[in-house]
């Protein structure tokens, strides 16, 4: 019973530290440790438990990669709104996103429209490190 509790506690420690340190890479391992702990309640053979742990890790990373692929293809940026802070040359602007966008609040942006400082814009597309924006209607 102590072994089961130990595995569950270690799994939660891995998950919590992953949230604060690596940002999701170790999450499937933490879940696999917890599931192996629950499996240890029924199976006492360490070789079988290691096989179950390996299965849980592979399944966890497979789910993580499928989720990341769907997330990468999703246009999550369509709903981000920013405010033009500085007008640069050739329809380039510095845009501030109050809630942040991919870890940054100030982005270089390009627009086909003529924008003024203070205009609200929405992200239309991402081209490398430059955002393509349009005026919010």
UniProtKB/TrEMBL annotation:
The chain crosses the membrane at residues 7-40, 46-67. GO terms for molecular function: peptidase activity. The keyword NAD does not apply. Residues 105-135 form the NfeD-like C-terminal domain. This is Membrane protein implicated in regulation of membrane protease activity. Keywords: Hydrolase, Membrane, Protease, Transmembrane, Transmembrane helix. Pfam families: NfeD (PF01957). The keyword Oxidoreductase does not apply. InterPro entries: NA-bd_OB-fold, NfeD-like_C. One of its GO terms (biological process) is proteolysis.
């Amino acid at each position: 019973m102590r072994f089961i509790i130990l595995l569950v506690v270690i799994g939660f420690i891995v998950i919590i530290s992953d949230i604060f340190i690596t940002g999701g890479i170790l999450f499937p391992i933490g879940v696999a440790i917890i599931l192996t702990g629950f499996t240890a309640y029924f199976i006492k053979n360490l070789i079988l438990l290691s096989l179950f742990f390996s299965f849980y890790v592979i399944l966890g990373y497979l789910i993580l990669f499928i989720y990341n692929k769907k997330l990468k293809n999703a246009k999550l940026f369509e709903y981000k709104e920013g405010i033009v802070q500085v007008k640069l040359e050739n329809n380039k602007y510095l845009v501030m996103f109050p809630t942040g966008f991919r870890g940054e609040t100030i982005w270089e942006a390009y627009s086909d429209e003529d924008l003024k400082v203070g205009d609200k814009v929405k992200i239309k597309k991402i081209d490398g490190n430059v955002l393509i924006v349009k005026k919010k209607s």
